[in-house]
Design brief:
Chain lengths: 472, 472
């Protein structure tokens, strides 16, 4: 028999890990509900046609496809068809429905768009939903990148108001504050990126410029300038872009400077206006919860950053990205999102604008571990264990056990009348705080001895007293 | 563009459905934790070799297999290999690792066994874990049967004590009591089924007898007797089985009568002894939480039923099944489980006995809907909506909004300064209880009007007063 294993890029979550992950999910869920967002869940499997072509060529390649069932039960006549379709599987990533017609969810956004289109008549718009589910990608596994990982999205669709953008900034702020993760939130607009292309006189080069700028953090300006040149941007254009990149100052100062440089780009002025309004809405919201002394509330960690690009092609307006600002942690983006003007158009419903953000649960988990900010009591579990002395004492212990549970005390009995040392060793390994000893003396007196595992202190008391002392 | 859809047998869960499902999950989670069980999660994908051959021939057929990625990128030389392996896919359900090496989780038991074997050195035994995750089966979809559905299991491994069986009965009782689902819990032992085969003098026919008996509810004794005959059981054997089936009375009376009939079957006497002990432990546990007047606590809905078979072959001792006892509901089993003596042996770890039960979440959900026992406040969500009057009033509204949320009141603002009627219609469709009206007058007085949507009552008050009145 070979040693069992799990597929590369997947993980088992131990009890302690599940509890910590639940803590993150519950914290986020509570905040989302406070903001009026509603929970949604979609199936793990989607029709392959729903997913293919939505994530670019790379995405098509990375989608996990499910083999149709019962292929070996087909009649011989059908097998000819199957064999010819098999050749299609071998020649392109867009596999044939005869061999595979279902695939695993690749993200939460496309299934959400599909849901909105299917249920457009039942939904009260604007519709705010949140969704926390796993997604699967056949990426090469590496540190912090898994083949099964969790996404957590909040989206607001059916409204073009920038209040939505501002609310999402508040959600990010509140969430990371509650999780005790210090962050920087970068904001930009796809429209400013389009304006850069305008400045170069090459509006068709927006994607090239975006891709190059995205590397600013990694390769510095000289590297970016070289890449821009390779991608066919003229010297003068590169100089214009450098001027924009070099703008420093507060968010308001940056927007004023951009407006000066981009005054002849209609799309640029639109982007600047939208970013300004988003920040103004954000300040009004923040004003409501204090920081009244400061002009801009919790804005010190929100940074307008024109080099922020975000990979996905469907963004059209404000975009946003979250990174951990602690020096101690090296981790890429732990969240991001933006405005998309026509996502549901992919499935035939035009004119529904939306904006959404995502939380990278697995990376947030890793950051919280590194920062050691998970609440200590999360790993607790069982609070009291009854030692099993067998015979009549066992019967007596079972009766005590249910009284503890009825008082909401997580409790268990060692199920076998094993050696005392073995039982204590188990309680110790489990990190159980109290051990209850219902021996002969205790049973005859209708009492129980309670031992505090940490202090070693042991005291005999009535069962009622034990319940009260364990509840505190 | 074709209308979007989801794969047959899968479901989207709307906000109201997600909240109700969460209610079930949270109720069960709370109980499991009280009983000292620890949460575990395993990957959606397992290696195909982990799953194949574990669920019988039918299971192998119904496992969803994942096509390996990047097949179209293989070199031509490798494609010869692929083509020959493809023929294996077409000839047997046990597909080849070259074409498919991963599959979707089919149940929670085998992954649990795999986990225990992989982590045997880190686990403190006896190990009690619970797990609530979806599983996938390529079954033909029908009412109450889905291709993606949720299982929820509690298992206790590493102890042969029948206290575990009794604790699981208590978990079932407490869970269905909390969920307000009236149930009958049937118990039996695989050992009694083996004894029936002994009685017939045909110990090798145990499975045949089990399969036939399992249909007692549906086809009655005459039908079962016919099937037994077809399956080669002699007249005398059938007569012995009928005698056992005809035993009526309390659980204790049944066990006494069985002992009389099965006195020459060692395995039968063992099974009777185990059932008796399990019920005794159960009564001790129940005694702890009252029902002191009655001799056997909450035992009236626990029924020893010798026709109970449970399909899975790995059970070896006590088995259990839960059905809803309400006349109003027609639904098969909503839970079941039993003792298995050597599950981890499948993966090379011998001698670890376990016992577990399962909750059929999707069926329990359906039953609770039919009985209308979900708490009413679950669908609530947003409690207060601020009407958006635009301009300065919008700014004022945003400030109020964050004060509500800071006081833990789920609130939202209509994001656009749309027509008043449109905003009210939205609030109505969403079922929002209170609408807050921050107009010119309110803003100038630093107050807000609060409208109770149900009574129609409207009152102007300070924001602080509004917060307090909405909190209550």
């Amino acid at each position: 028999m070979s040693k069992p294993s799990i597929p590369q890029g997947t993980r088992d979550f131990s009890p302690a890990e599940v509890r910590r992950r639940q803590y993150i999910f519950n914290t986020l869920r509570t905040i989302f509900e406070l903001y009026g967002a509603q929970p949604l869940e979609t199936p793990s499997m989607e029709n392959l046609t729903t997913l293919m072509g939505k994530y670019g060529e790379e995405g098509d390649r990375l989608i996990f496809k499910i083999l149709n069932n019962g292929l070996h039960e087909k009649k011989d006549a059908d097998k000819d068809k199957l064999n010819s379709e098999w050749n299609n599987v071998l020649s392109r990533p867009y596999s044939t429905p005869v061999v595979t017609e279902r695939a695993l969810r690749y993200d939460l956004t496309i299934p959400f768009a599909r849901y909105v289109v299917m249920h457009q008549n039942d939904i009260a718009f604007p519709f705010r939903r949140y969704q926390m589910q796993p997604v699967w990608r056949a990426d090469r596994p590496q540190k912090g990148r898994y083949r099964e990982f969790w996404q957590c999205d909040v989206d607001m669709v059916g409204s073009t108001s920038l209040i939505n953008e501002a609310e999402l900034l508040c959600i990010y702020q509140t969430a990371f504050q509650k999780l005790k993760v210090p962050v920087t939130i970068k904001v930009n607009s796809r429209k400013l990126l389009a304006a850069l292309a305008d400045l170069c006189g090459m509006p068709e080069k927006m994607i090239d410029i975006t891709v190059a700028l995205d590397k600013l953090d990694k390769i510095g300006w000289v590297g970016v300038a070289n890449e821009l040149k390779e991608r066919g941007i003229a010297e003068d254009g590169i100089w214009q872009i450098e001027k924009v990149i070099n703008v420093k100052g507060t968010n308001d100062e940056k927007l004023v400077a951009y407006a000066d440089i981009m005054q002849h780009s209609a799309v640029g002025m639109e982007g600047i206006n939208e970013l300004g309004k988003t920040l103004a809405y954000y300040r009004s919201l923040e004003f409501g919860i204090g920081d009244l002394d400061s002009d801009n509330g919790r804005e010190e960690n929100i940074v307008v950053d024109i080099s922020l690009a975000r990979g996905l092609n469907y963004y059209t307006g404000v975009i946003v990205e979250v990174v951990c600002s602690s020096e101690a942690v090296k981790m890429g983006s732990i969240g991001g999102g933006g405005r998309y003007d026509d996502l549901t158009g992919l499935f035939g419903l035009k004119g529904v604008s939306g904006v959404g953000i995502s939380f990278g649960i697995d990376r947030i988990y890793d950051v919280m571990e590194e920062l050691d900010v998970f609440p200590k009591q999360l790993v607790e579990g069982t609070k009291a264990m009854l030692v099993n002395f067998g015979g009549e004492n066992e019967t007596y212990a079972l009766q005590i056990l249910q009284q503890l549970r009825a008082a909401n005390i997580a409790a268990e009995i060692y199920p076998d009348a094993a050696k005392f040392d073995k039982q204590m060793k188990y309680a110790n390994r489990r990190g159980i705080a109290y051990v209850l000893l219902p021996g002969d003396e205790e049973r005859q007196k209708n009492m129980v001895s309670v031992k505090n595992f940490e202090t070693g202190e042991q005291k005999m008391m009535s069962v009622g007293e034990a319940v009260i002392s364990l509840q505190s």
